[in-house]
Amino acid sequence: QVQLVEFGGGLVQPGGSLRLSCAAAGSIFSVRAMGWYRQATGKPRELVAVATSGGSTKYSDSVKGRFTISRDNAKNTVYLQMNSLKPEDTAVYYCNADIDGGTYYQDYWGQGTQVTVSS
User: Fold this and answer.
1) Cβ pair 59, 47 in contact under 8 A
2) Within 13 Å of residue 98, how many CA atoms lie on the same side as its CB?
3) Residue 5 burial (CB < 10 Å; 0-12/13-18/19+)?
């Protein structure tokens, strides 16, 4: 059984920073891409950032230059450093990972963590 456990959401003022983390736990043989998505109320889920096991990264245009994704492959953990936060960044943030639990690669999701940017 593989689980993704997220930490780090909360309430922050505009211009502030937050750091999200997501750890994959369980029977894990290999992890490919790990990333973050978000879903604001009434909107579809969207990609925020993704990082491959080789270190390549990709960001949505709306967060480029403000957010940084990083990974600790030894710990099967992915981080999202969010700086210069804006009210439009308010959403539930979900961790996602492509994990081989011993048979084949599957897509896993975290439980979601709320990020609210408001004064």
Assistant:
1) no
2) 9
3) middle
Half-sphere exposure of 29 (CA within 13 A, CB side): 7
Closest CA to 37 of 110, 119, 118: 110
β-pairing verdict for 91-100 and 77-82 = unpaired
Query: Exposed, middle or buried: residue 103 (CB in 10 Å: 0-12, 13-18, 19+)?
Result: exposed
End-to-end CA gap in the chain: 40
DSSP 38: E
**Tens digit of pLDDT for each residue in 57-96?**
999 999 999 999 999 999 999 999 999 999 999 999 999 9
Residues 56 and 54: their CA atoms lie apart, in Å, by: 6
pLDDT of residue 33: 96
| 49: helix, strand or coil | strand
